[in-house]
Each structure stands twice: as C-alpha cells, then as structure tokens.
Design brief:
Helix content is 58%, strand content 0%. By secondary structure, the protein is mainly α. The longest helix has 17 residues. It is globular and about 55 Å long.
C-alpha cells in the first residue's frame, strides 16, 4: 500500500544542487523589479517578499528559504508569472520549492505534505474522499493528540448534518483510480 506522504515529481535520487541549479539559472534573469511582490495577494502575510525569496534562491541560502513561510503561502494564482516583465515562470519556481521542501521533510512544510498525502491516498482508495479515513490518517501522521480535539466541534456538526459517517461504506472495496495513479507515477519517474 502506498505511503500517505505526498507524491513528488522530483526524482528522489536528485540532490538539492541538482534541483536548485536549474532553478537558479532560470531565475538569474530576474531584474529584481518587485513586480512579483506587488502582484502577490499574499505578500503581506509572507516573512520574505517573493522578490527577496528569489534573491535568497539565487544566493543559495536554502536554509533561510525553507524556514520561511513565503513559498508555502503561494496560492499558485499565476499573477506574478503573468506580470513578470522578464516572463519568468515564478509560480512554477514556487512549486519546485514546495516540492523540494516536502522532499527534504522541512518541519514548516510537513503538515501540508501530510494533509495532501492523506487526501490523495483516500481518493486513490475509494475514488472519492472518505472523510473519516482521511481525517484518521492525517491525525495519526501528525502525532499530536491536540489536533483531533481541536476539530471535534466541527466533526460533531458534520455528523449531525449527515455530511460524514462514522462507519465506512464497505460496498466499495476496489481501488477505482489505481491505474490512473500508477500512470501518473510512471510519468513523474520519466521526468
């Protein structure tokens, strides 16, 4: 059975330099104009502006990059990419940093990776999200007993409204999306 950790398109044999090298080369055309920061709707929430983050990537200061919350707050709206006067794929660069952060198991990114991994595993197993299984997997991966307690009021409201069921639907035991997920994994390995 596949792990509930998020699947990455980054080859696990690649080193950090193998991944950051092409990214740094691509970002070397950045003229530090600040259009990306001015375009970002989340910039005020970030500890480093996108402009500063690109500078840190170019200087190879990966520890600062991965311990910031800037790339984790990117909503992938592509507004920075569309407005960049140099035509740099900034959203794709942020995505690469997110994937590398998940691969490196950076503490700040770990909850997101576990959340999405649990979600995808539930969809893979059932062809749709099974909320109880998804929540159970996520809470177990987080290894923090306070998290489920925090979500208890929401869970009770969802149970009362019939949005979730305590007992899983046993009628669907096949894995309807297995072939799809296997094909995606094959394509990711080829990249």
């Amino acid at each position: 059975m596949p792990s509930a950790e998020i699947s990455l398109t980054i080859n696990t044999q690649e080193t950090e330099e193998d991944i950051l090298g092409p990214l740094q080369e691509e970002l070397s055309a950045c003229i530090q104009c600040g259009t990306c920061t001015a375009s970002c709707r989340n910039a005020q929430l970030m500890d480093f502006t996108p402009r500063r983050l690109w500078r840190l990537v170019l200087m190879g200061q990966t520890e600062e990059v991965f311990h910031s919350k800037t790339f984790a707050l990117c909503s992938a709206c592509y507004y920075c990419t569309l407005r960049c006067p140099r035509g740099l794929p900034l959203t794709d660069a942020m995505n690469t940093l997110k994937q590398l952060g998940a691969k490196k198991n950076v503490a700040e990114y770990r909850p997101n990776a576990r959340f999405y991994g649990s979600f995808l595993e539930s969809v893979r197993r059932h062809g749709r999200i099974n909320e109880m299984e998804f929540m159970r997997r996520y809470f177990i991966l987080m290894k923090n007993p306070a998290i489920p307690i925090k979500f208890t009021p929401l869970g009770i409201r969802l149970l009362r409204k019939g949005k979730i069921s305590i007992f899983p639907d046993k009628s669907k035991t096949e894995r309807p999306l297995d072939q799809f997920f296997q094909r995606v994994e094959e394509l990711e390995r080829q990249q």
